[in-house]
Amino acid sequence: MNVEQVYKDANALLEGHFLLASGNHSARYLQSAKVLEYPQKASELTDALASMIKDAGVAVDTVCAPALGGVLAGYELARSLGVRSIFVEKKEGGMELRRGFEIEPGEKVIICEDIITTGGSALKAAQTIEALGGEIVAFASLANRGFCKRVGGENEAKPECKLPKNIPLFSLADFTFEMYAPDKCPMCKEGSTAIKPGSKG
Ligand code: ZN
Questions:
Q1: Number of domains the chain contains
Q2: How far is Cα 106 from Cα 109, in angstroms, rounded to an integer?
Q3: Measured in angstroms, how far is the CA atom of residue 148 from the centroid of ligand 1?
Q4: High-pLDDT (> 70) share of the chain, %
Q5: How many angstroms separate the alpha carbon of residue 181 from the centre of ligand 1?
Q6: The domain that contains 149 carries what CATH number?
Q7: Residue 176 to residue 173: CA distance in whole angstroms
């Protein structure tokens, strides 16, 4: 599967001049929710991800996603793996399990996101599950922004990666984009204005 082409076809891989949450500028942006607009396509992606996890021999009872961004990817991955799906939600300073979801002692859990950037949300979700007695067996995401090392990927982990190095990250592809400080941005120098994409409006 050509994952980059799947993202392009879904208009999930944008090209232009973008202001990122970090304050940096970039010529490319991954609008990761767009690739999940069509459930049929989403399950093709998670079937491929599930194959990687099964081939690695990782036993899993449950997929847990950090809400909101990870929920659809987590749900589809759970379907592909034939296990249950839960999600954790933000609270002050961390995340918590609500809505009657429970974790059994020793339950083997994969934390799934649509996209892993530095892995901050995924790490908070993992800490929540561990505090309830679950065991984190892997992290998973459809797309990896290249800060963390994925199983089979060529990029090494960067210092920004927050995920623990002793737990594997399964991801379909690395999307490593060049980022510029605003005063060094070549697109700004050409006179264009960066626009703010993403989930926060
Ligand atoms: Zn710029």
A1: 1
A2: 9
A3: 25
A4: 98
A5: 8
A6: 3.40.50.2020
A7: 9
Mean pLDDT of the chain: 94
Structure tokens at 71: 């929920």
pLDDT at 65: 98
CB under 5 Å of ion ligand 1: residues: 25, 185, 187-188, 194
pLDDT at res. 22? 81
Q: Is residue 183 part of a domain?
A: no
What is the domain extent for residue 86? 39-175
State the distance from the centre of ligand 1 to the C-alpha of 132, rounded, in angstroms: 44
Kindly give the distance from the C-alpha atom of residue 186 to the centroid of ligand 1, in angstroms, as a whole number.
Answer: 7
Tens digits of residue pLDDT in 65-117: 999 989 999 999 999 999 999 999 999 989 999 999 999 999 999 999 999 99
Question: What is the arrangement of strands in the sheet containing 25-30, beginning at the earlier edge strand?
Answer: 13-19, 25-30, 179-180
CA within 13 Å, CB half, 90: 8
Place of tokens 């994409």: 197
In a domain? residue 88: yes
Give me ligand 1 centre to Cα 185, in Å: 5
Q: Residue 21 — very low, low, confident or very high, per pLDDT cuts 50/70/90?
A: confident
Whether residue 191 is contained in a domain is answered as no
User: How close is the Cα of 193 to the center of ligand 1, in Å?
Assistant: 6
In a domain, 32, yes or no: no
pLDDT attached to residue 200:
59
